[in-house]
Amino acid sequence: MPSCPECENELDIEVDEVEEGDVVSCEECGTEYEIVGVEPLELARVDEDFDEEDDAYEEDEEE
Ligand SMILES: [Zn+2]
Question: What is the whole-number distance in angstroms between the Cα of residue 60 and the centre of ligand 1?
């Protein structure tokens, strides 16, 4: 079973039951990971900071 890179808690992922694009979250620290590969299992951290940057940019264009 894979473990969370952030807190090393074991992630409750059944490799047979997930597919690319699924998002899982760590029960321990709440960090979300997107499944980017299943063989072998690869996780990419979902980073919410991107949204904040988008908002700031849009505010700039408002009149
Ligand atoms: Zn964690």
Answer: 35
